[in-house]
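Example record

One chain of 154 residues, shown exactly as stored in the release files.
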Amino acid sequence: MNDRRKLIEKILEDIRAIKHEISAELHFFSAGIRITHPQWLVLRLVKSNGTINIKDLANLLDTTSSATTQIVNGLVNKGLLLRKRNPDDRRTLKIELSEKFKNQFDSIKNKSFKTLSLLFDALDDDELLKYCELNDKIIGNILLKEQIRKKKNK
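Predicted structure tokens for this chain:
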């Protein structure tokens, strides 16, 4: 049991180191527009959804609408996001990427990917596939626990 704990602690420390490297790399490529990691997550979610409202965005981020609004406000002030009236419901606003940022987004993502993919050069193709499968297994367990927790809270 003690060996398992040590292994898990090592894995968690390794995950922190990888996360730190990814965050540092993103900061380097987005330095011209100065965005934080949470802001980048919002931009990615908006990009993948096209347009989205604050409530749905908050649900995807697993945070409050108030916290999400603060992040969105910062991105709107930087000219990266736009708020648009929802034609189906005038009480709500839709969030979308600004035209200015649509081109920058792909450029930042591509430059960042080229550098970050080097992290995985330590793995051959079979090891990379196994790593992906193990991550999927862990994520599947996380999603299952979330479903169980949501059912208990209902």
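Notes: The radius of gyration is 19 Å.
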